[in-house]
Amino acid sequence: MTAPIEILTPEQKAAIFQQCNSQPCQDAVARLTNARNAFPVICNRIAVWSSSRIWYAATAATAYAASLASAIAAAAATATIIGIPLAAVLWVAAVVFLLAALTLTVLAVNAAVQYGKAQDDLTNAQTEFNAAATDARTKCGAYCNIGDTKMPACP
Are 139 and 28 in contact (CB under 8 A)? Predict the structure, then answer.
């Protein structure tokens, strides 16, 4: 427990002032500030990659369904002589939809990997923040203003 600063002697106040303005304390506070400032960027990346992977996966599923529907329609269109040209167009559409679906699947997998990396970055940032807060408390002492030491969280 620390005593109120008002009851400290002038020598104790001077020592606290020197400690708070020392280079190790200032470096520790800067490290804590940098650790805190890393969170909005990382949280934004998590949100972007989360949305991207969902969008790519949903769009890929739609493209797979469109490809399958086009293939079924092409097969049905070949039942008549008149439907053969239509069937050719539908087979081309089925292939185009399939290629789009495969491309979107690759993008969805990439987004999932990037999302995982962003989650790892968040874990690393939390570890760094805790270390920086401990370092600032140790090097600056109880009387120095080291800023907010509450762990930032992603919305």
Answer: yes
